[in-house]
Amino acid sequence: MSQTTPSESQLAQEVRKRRTFGIISHPDAGKTTLTEKLLLFGGAIQMAGSIKAKKAQRHARSDWMEVEQKRGISVASSVMKFLYQDCEINLLDTPGHQDFSEDTYRVLTAVDSALMVIDSVKGVEEQTRKLMDVCRMRSTPIMTFVNKLDRDGRDPFELLDEIENTLGIQASPLTWPIGMGKLFQGVYDLVNQEIRFFTPPDDKGRRPEERAVIKDLDDSKLDELIGSAAAESLRQDLELIHGAGYPFDRDAYLEGRQTPVFFGSAVNNFGVRELLETFVKEAPPPRPRPASTREVSPLEQEFSGFVFKIQANMDPAHRDRIAFMRICSGRFQRGMKVRHHRIGKDIQLSNAIIFMAQDRAGVEEAWPGDIIGVHNHGILKIGDTLSSKEELQFLGIPNFAPEFFQRVFLKNPIKSKQLEKGLVQLTEEGAIQLFRPVGGNDYILGAIGSLQFDVTAARLKAEYGVDAAYEPLDYSTVRWIWARDKKALEKFRKRYFNSLVQDVEGYPAMLFATRWRLERTREEWPEIEFLASREQQ
Ligand code: G4P
């Protein structure tokens, strides 16, 4: 197929309308419910309940993974594209329940912004904190949706404080709840200065929208509409917000220093439209991305992209794998030839999957911010860059420190070559991480979510014929070790020779049984850096 260069104006227009984001939340905060409402608004699904119904099978839109479906789970995240106003939105799923894994973190390296969902009853929870750490590495802009206001939750000020203190980001409310639980009446929209009333949806899931503009809060109309007690409390709250809160600051949001906060109830489809409208208006389109030699602008006409996730077992008979690639610049055209820099070869992207909004069959091209799936037989690994001409290596797709560890024992020693080959390949695909003791021959597997071990064991058996035994290890984290002062590093190595490991690329790391032990070692060795992630090479 002949490739043509897009015109500058066409490229700029396509970039401007794209929004690529992921949702960060703790299981049960309401991510699936909110996703469904967003897709309903975008017309990508027609009926409420269709995503939730499939959640049991995990995941709604990735039902091409038959093998995973049979197991009732998906080890993968998928891409959901929908249109809203004049925007093309790519929502990258961030698997969160038992399929929480390093993939979840890596998806966040491929987005331009994130949406954080917090349960108003539970506040900021563990997985949200971890995902937020990843967002912070790239200063990803984040919008927040505080969910389940129809329940008796925590005081909204307390929730804002918790966001600020535990996540280290300013919280700027753009809506404010009026009551909660049984007394939940709706929200006050601080931008449009109006009340949006909470009315339960009818039996078809539609919710009549009722609003009342209240510019002057002292207006007695407020008392008539929501009752004097609620009116008084709203006045006090808003006075506090205007006096001591952070007004919305677009630059601070775009730099990841401030999160605009919305309150609502996803299951009742309340507060979601305001969120989506602000999202398309304020969330950033694809941004320039750093590569090892320079920064690459999405507006550059040459095509470039990087692999952030690999999904295997699409068709076990063919050992087929799909590499998910985020497009960073230029235009993708089906069948185009691109340079695979790591192996120094051209490859043809003839059978790529283009994730598209419904009713747009036959799409042959994709643009910066879009994700394409490339079929391959193992030549692509996480972090690989493909581009049409210039040699590029995108940065920012690291390995993240695992939190679960297992030792692998071979049942049949004859298979040791296959074991090593399988483990190295699975590591390159990002299915698992592999460490070897500096002074030993053991294979130590590291994972972010324990399901990764099941997947690894199943794939070693099915694809490499390796039947192994696995023993959990009593470590809770690992840190890559680095120091400017090479003498200090040598001293440290000697001192901890028996606890040191190296990863699959030979980088030194150290296993820790507890966080406390890590902190103690950090204090004792100030000249050593203990890194929680390592950039892919
Ligand atoms: P997740 O993907 O983040 O894990 O959460 P999910 O959307 O599945 O929601 C978790 C539970 O919280 C679900 O209940 C869901 O209905 C409920 N939920 C979501 N949004 C709201 C809300 O605004 N208010 C209230 N009260 N509940 C909400 P479930 O009992 O686990 O499932 P279901 O049988 O109700 O679907």
TrEMBL record:
Which cellular component terms (GO) are annotated to the entry? cytosol
Top-level taxon in the UniProt lineage:
Bacteria
Where is each Tr-type G domain found?
A: 16-287
The record's listing under InterPro entries reads: EF-G-like_DII, EFG_III/V, G_TR_CS, P-loop_NTPase, PrfC, RF3_C, RF3_dom_3_sf, RF3_GTP-bd
Positions contributing to GTP binding: 25-32, 93-97, 147-150
The keyword Cytoplasm is annotated on this UniProt entry: yes
Molecular function (Gene Ontology), one example: GTPase activity
Compartment annotation:
Cytoplasm
* Keywords linked to the UniProt accession: Cytoplasm, GTP-binding, Nucleotide-binding, Protein biosynthesis
Q: Biological process (GO) annotations?
A: regulation of translational termination
Q: Does the keyword Nucleotide-binding apply?
A: yes
- Family (UniProt): Belongs to the TRAFAC class translation factor GTPase superfamily. Classic translation factor GTPase family. PrfC subfamily.
| Summary of the function given for this chain in its UniProt record | Increases the formation of ribosomal termination complexes and stimulates activities of RF-1 and RF-2. It binds guanine nucleotides and has strong preference for UGA stop codons. It may interact directly with the ribosome. The stimulation of RF-1 and RF-2 is significantly reduced by GTP and GDP, but not by GMP.
Q: What is this protein called?
A: Peptide chain release factor 3
Task: Tell me which species this is from.
Answer: Desulfonatronospira thiodismutans ASO3-1
Q: What is the lineage of its organism?
A: Bacteria, Pseudomonadati, Thermodesulfobacteriota, Desulfovibrionia, Desulfovibrionales
Query: In the UniProt record, what gene is named as encoding this protein?
Result: prfC
